[in-house]
Design a protein that fits this description.
single chain; 16 helices; binds nicotinamide-adenine-dinucleotide; Aldehyde Dehydrogenase, Chain A, domain 1
Length: about 475
């Protein structure tokens, strides 16, 4: 098959100033075969040795920090978060390495029903794990499942998004210098490459949209391989009358617009008690209007460009749909073209309802629609009125009040007296509800254990039962 060249857009200039060759099915199959054969020796190494190798990879990433973050900066149009992605990957490698000795139970357990039979677990990694990642945090979401999979003894093939592929080359150089390229590699390409990857691996970790997630689930089901899916969200924030409005507006703003709202765990709808709505809106609007673009100077400002051109169409369509149905824009609201890139300043909307796409469909941008509620019961019902269930947040006067509400929200993680904490804190295990995902937790010890098949060794310490013990007339 002739290689396909895919042009890549620069989000700050709008120019197609990079290109990738999309790997075809044959190349993917050959890479998988190479990884599968190297994985045997990798899995046979004691866990301590794999741990040391991960620390070596952490050191290599730190040593290649300049090249990787420079590429990520062009991929995403932001500088500080590029550095944070790199530092986060290094910290994650070191963190998993430190936890490794404590993640698996070992030893024999005496039988309860048959005391002469005891059992012990053996943990057998899947040979090749596939990781398919999106464009919003290209390095973080390429490494988040990769690190525990490698530690577990899998070989890993990563396919990052075709929208943000510039970091692949310097990352491969770091992997090479850590001596890990026989068991860890990245491939370039788009959806067709991703589909080919699913045909070649033994377990698939996918982060992306619900629409693609459905295709990935179907392809994995056809091959009977496990699929772990981390998909979109429509995260609500409930603010009660007792909340500190200064803190609640800080959390709402950061939770909604950090990374230009291009985060799965972004707050995408805000429900505020009608008693404090006016003051909440005025403070939120004032803070939102003060947010600076990192344009023209990438070293200043809080938010970057819209990374994916087509996302701007979705944002524009949601704003138009909302205003056509009666929503009012308090600040922001216009997609701007600056230097060829596309930008949206934080956009606060009021007079919104669940008849508007901005309250029901994923936005993935810096839009903060605010709706008033008259009772906490109504707020909980509104928060749960969604096809998603990734995460949520509650801000109240006390943690106890926030917790009581949080326990009734149908989502995989609820931030209490803050917002979008899953983006900052990766230790708590969680499952996505409804369309937001499928499969075990990527966080916490379960995020490691899911790459291991649990095999049972069952030992009889006495004499085996003869067939006659099962005779009809015994
Ligand atoms: P996307 O679904 O368009 O693409 C994700 C990846 O899938 C890309 O690498 C793409 O090339 C690949 N792909 C496309 N078609 C495929 C196919 N048929 N088979 C296999 N792979 C295929 O998503 P996106 O636009 O890159 O990312 C944004 C989405 O990701 C949002 O919905 C966001 O909520 C979600 N997301 C979720 C999380 C989470 O942890 N839950 C984190 C970040 C982003």
């Amino acid at each position: 098959m002739t290689p396909r060249t895919l042009p890549v857009r620069n989000p700050r200039t709008g120019e197609m100033d990079y290109a990738i060759e999309a790997a075809g099915a044959e190349e993917i199959a050959a890479i998988a075969a190479r990884l599968r054969s190297a994985q045997k020796a990798w899995a046979a190494r004691p866990l301590e040795e794999r741990t040391i190798a991960l620390v070596r990879l952490a050191d290599a990433l730190a040593a290649h920090r300049g090249a990787i973050t420079a590429a990520l900066e062009i991929d995403t149009g932001r500088r500080r978060i590029a550095g944070m992605e790199l530092d986060g990957a290094v910290a994650s490698l070191r963190g998993w390495a430190a936890q490794a000795p404590h993640l698996l139970p070992e030893g024999w357990t005496e039988g309860r029903s048959a005391p002469h039979i005891r059992h012990a677990p053996q943990f057998v990694p899947y040979a090749v794990a596939g990781v398919i990642s999106p464009w919003n945090f290209p390095l973080t979401l390429s490494m988040i499942d990769t690190i525990p999979a490698l530690l577990a003894g899998c070989a890993v093939m990563i396919k990052p998004s075709e929208v943000t592929p510039r970091f692949i080359r310097p990352l491969m150089e770091a992997i090479e210098s850590a001596g890990l390229s026989d068991v860890l590699t990245l491939v370039s390409g788009d959806g067709a490459t991703g589909a080919a990857l699913i045909e070649a691996v033994d377990v698939i970790c996918f982060t992306g949209s619900v629409a693609t997630g459905r295709k990935v689930t179907a392809a994995a089901a056809a091959r009977m391989i496990p699929a772990f899916l981390e998909l979109g969200g429509k995260d609500p924030l409930i603010v009660t009358a007792s909340a500190d409005i200064g803190q609640a507006t800080d959390a709402a703003l950061r939770g909604s617009v950090l990374s230009t709202g291009q985060a799965c765990q972004s707050i995408e709808r805000i429900y505020v008690d009608a008693q404090i709505q006016a003051e909440f809106l005025s403070r939120l609007t004032e803070k939102a209007a003060a947010v600076r673009l990192n344009w023209p100077d990438i070293t200043a400002g809080e938010i970057g460009p819209i990374i994916f051109e087509r996302q701007a169409d979705i944002l524009r369509a949601q704003i138009d749909d909302a205003t056509a149905k009666g929503a009012r824009i308090l600040t922001g609201g216009e997609i701007e073209t600056l230097g060829g890139g596309l930008w949206l300043r934080p956009t606060v909307l009021t007079n919104v309802s669940h008849q508007m796409a901005v309250m029901t469909e994923e936005t993935f941008g810096p839009i903060l629609p605010v709706m008033a509620f008259s009772s906490v019961e109504d707020a909980i019902q509104l928060a749960n009125d969604t096809v998603y269930g990734l995460s949520a947040a509650v801000f109240a006067g006390t943690l106890e009040e926030a917790e009581a509400i949080g326990r009734r929200i149908e989502a995989g993680a609820v931030s209490l007296n803050d917002a979008a904490l899953t983006g900052l804190f990766h230790e708590a295990e969680k499952h996505s509800f409804r369309l937001s995902g499928l499969g075990g937790s990527r966080m916490g010890p379960a995020g490691f254990q899911r790459f291991l098949r649990r095999k049972a060794l069952i030992a009889n310490t006495g004499a085996p039962a003869p067939l006659s013990a099962f005779a009809e007339d015994a």
